[in-house]
Amino acid sequence: MARGRITRLTVCDVRFPTSLAHHGSDAMHPDPDYSAAYVTIETDASDGLKGYGLTFTLGKGTEVVVCAVNALSVHVVNKDLDEIISNFRGFYRQLTSDGQLRWIGPEKGAVHLATAAILNAVWDLWAKQEGKPLWKLLVDMDPKQLLSCIDFRYITDALTEEEAYTILQNGLVGKKEREEQMLKHGYPAYTTSCAWLGYSDQQLKQLCTEALKDGWTRFKVKVGADLQDDIRRCKLVREMIGPENILMLDANQRWEVEEAIQWVAKLAEFQPLWIEEPTSPDDILGHATISKALAPLGIGVATGEQCHNRVIFKQLLQARALSFVQVDSCRLGSVNENLSVLLMAKKFQIPVCPHAGGVGLCELVQHLIIFDYISVSSNLKNRMCEYVDHLHEHFKNPVTIKNASYIPPQAAGYSNEMKEESVRKYQFPQGEVWQKLLSEHKMQLQ
Question: What does the pLDDT average to over 111-120?
C-alpha cells in the first residue's frame, strides 16, 4: 500500500463557550472554555484520506499551541507516511528533540501538546488507511512493531524494551476472548458530569437522579474550594447514590501536601475510592506523602491528566506515589508515549483509569483503554474510564455509551474528526458563535 507523502498540515483554534454554564468548572479552573488545537494532515495518496488530531485546551492559550503546531510542521510536511510508520520511534524523537524548540519543553508544555495533536492526526490517518479503529490497529499489531513506536529513552531504569516485549507476549494469551468481551459489554466508565464545582445543589441532584436511572454506578465530585461546602456536597451525593455505589473526589491541584491530607481525612466518612490531583502534578514526593498518609483510610491517590511525560509517570510509579494512573491522550505525546505508560503501569501493577474530561478526550482515550485491557493489563479490577457528556455532538463518530460502559468504536481512525459545521461555527475568533458572543460579552470572554 502506498500511503503517500504528507503534502499539507493545517491547524485551527476551536473553542466551545462552556464557561457560560459552568461546565467543566473545578477548584482551579472556575471558567473553562473547552477547546482544541485541531490539526488536519493531507497526503498525495490516491485514497484521498485525511488525518485529524487534536489536543485539549481550556480557551485562552490555544493560540499558543496553534503556533507550536505550526513551528513543528517543518518536521511533518513532505514526510512519507510509510517512512514515519516504519521508524515511528525515530519520528517521535525528531518531533520532541528539535534542537531549538526542545528548549521550551523538553517534552512538556505547549510544544508537547502540539506534538500530541500532530501525532494523533498521524495515528488517525494510519488507522483509516488500514480500515480499522485505532484500538483494533493496536490490538492486531505484532509486539515488536508496537514497541518500535515507543521511545524508551529515560525510562529504561523502570521498564526495558525486553520487559515490555514480555508483557505484550503474555498479553497474547486470552486476547481473543477479551476482545469479544469488550465488543459485547464494553469498558466500564464513571461520570464526572453530575458534580462540577459551579453547579447548584438542585442541578447536582437532578443530574445524579438521571445518571442513576441510566445505570451509572461510579460518580466523581469536584472538591477543594471550601471544606464545609465539600462536606455538604459530598454528603448530598453520597445520599443520592447510596452506599453501594462508588464515589471519587477531584481537587485539581488545589492543596499543599499537609493541607491535602487534613482536608481529605475530613471527607473520609463519605468513603471515596480516591482523591485525584491533591497537589501540584509535579510533586512526586508530595504525592507519595499523601498516598502513604491516606492509605490507612482506604483512600487512594490518582493523578496523571497534567503529568508532562512518561518520565513523571515513571517517578510516580517508582515512588509508590499513586494508586491509579490517569493517562491523557493529549497531554502525553499521543499514542506513542501513552503506550509506554500503559506498559509501566502493568509492570508496577497499578490500574489505569484515564482522564477524559474535555472536548474530544472521550473519543480518543476509549481506544487506549480498550487496547490496554485486551493486550496489556488483562484486568478490570478497580479500573474505569472517565466520561463527560459534553460536546460529543460535534464529532463525526462520537463515543457510544451503553450500560455505563464505552462500547468499542467500529469506524476506522482515531474518532477525533469534527464535523465541518462545528469547526466553522466555533473557530476562534472568526466563527459565527464567537463573533456573536464577543460582541455581546466582549469584556467577559476576551
Answer: 98
**Do residues 55 and 65 touch, judged by C-beta distance below 8 A?**
yes
Instruction: Please name every residue paired with 41 in a beta bridge, in sequence order, or none if there are none.
Output: 9, 51
Q: Say how far apart CA 79 and CA 286 lie, in whole Å.
A: 43
Helix (H/G/I), strand (E/B), else coil: 102: helix
Render 183-221 in DSSP notation, one character per residue.
HHH-EEEEE-TT--TTS-HHHHHHHHHHHHHTT--EEEE
Cβ contact 77:8 at 8 Å:
yes
Please report, as a single letter, which amino acid is at residue 12. Answer: C
Neighbours of 444 (CB within 10 A): 11
* Cα–Cα distances in angstroms (integers) from residue 174 to residues 137, 208, 376, in the given order: 18, 37, 11
Q: What is the pLDDT of residue 229?
A: 96
Q: How far apart are CA 168 and CA 142, in angstroms?
A: 9
pLDDT at 1: 67
Q: Is 355 a catalytic residue?
A: yes
Query: Among residues 23, 132, 355, 367, which one is catalytic?
Result: 355
- CA angle, residues 197, 202, 208, in degrees to nearest 5: 75
Which cell numbers in the block locate residue 318? 517508582
| Cβ–Cβ under 8 Å, residues 327 and 308 | no
Please state the separation of Cα 404 from the chain's center in Å: 18
Calpha distance 293→307 (Å, rounded): 22
Catalytic residue flag (residue 441)? no
User: What 3-state class would DSSP assign to 34?
Assistant: coil
User: Would you place residue 168 in the very low, low, confident or very high pLDDT band (cuts 50, 70, 90)?
Assistant: very high
Give yes or no for residue 391 having a pLDDT over 80. yes
pLDDT in tens, 286-336: 999 999 999 999 999 999 999 999 999 999 999 999 999 999 999 999 999
Counting every residue, how long is the chain? 446
Give dist(CA 317, CA 312) in Å, integer: 9
Catalytic residue among 222, 308, 314, 367: 222
The three-class DSSP label of residue 409 is coil
Return the SS3 of 117. Answer: helix
